[in-house]
Design a protein that fits this description.
Bound molecules: manganese (II) ion
Radius of gyration: 13 Å
Order of helices and strands: EHEHEHEHEH
CATH class: Alpha Beta
CATH topology: Rossmann fold
Largest sheet: 5 strands, parallel
Helix content: 40-55%
Distance between the termini: 9 Å
Shape: globular
Number of helices: 5
Number of strands: 5
Strand order of the largest sheet: 2-1-3-4-5
Number of domains: 1
Length: 128
């Protein structure tokens, strides 16, 4: 199993979480572009279309919910799978995540297995 040649946009303001995600994704040979804010992420999408977006929900400035609503309403962007990376997955939060248009969800703290399984699922890659 590998994510070789898969382009992932990682939007995460916390440096430790960003590093952790990158470390895992690099093991699987994904090409990761990291940004610290939703605004930077949207700017990146103006020139590059990744295969998948990992979106921290809690971000300073525009949050991950609002950014995902924008992505899902825009032709050319709406087909990109967006995964919510959230600190708390309470019932109310899960409903908001669905309504915002996220395609998947990963709760922090996550295990490497859970993290990659969700990515493989959304990319349609069989994992064992
Ligand atoms: Mn955050």
């Amino acid at each position: 199993m590998s994510l070789c040649d898969i382009k992932i946009l990682l939007i995460e303001d916390n440096e430790m979480n960003r590093q952790l995600c990158c470390d895992i994704l690099e093991i699987y040979q994904a090409q990761v572009h990291e940004v610290e804010s939703a605004e930077e992420g949207l700017e990146y999408l103006e020139s590059e279309i990744p295969d998948l977006i990992l979106m921290d929900v809690q971000l300073p400035g525009m949050d991950g919910m609002q950014a995902t609503r924008i992505i899902k309403q825009r032709p050319g962007w709406s087909q990109i799978p967006v995964v919510a990376v959230t600190a708390h997955a309470m019932t109310g939060e899960m409903e908001k995540i669905r309504q915002a248009g996220f395609d998947g969800q990963i709760s922090k703290p996550f295990t490497i297995t859970n993290f990659v399984a969700e990515i493989f699922r959304l990319l349609g890659i069989e994992s064992e």
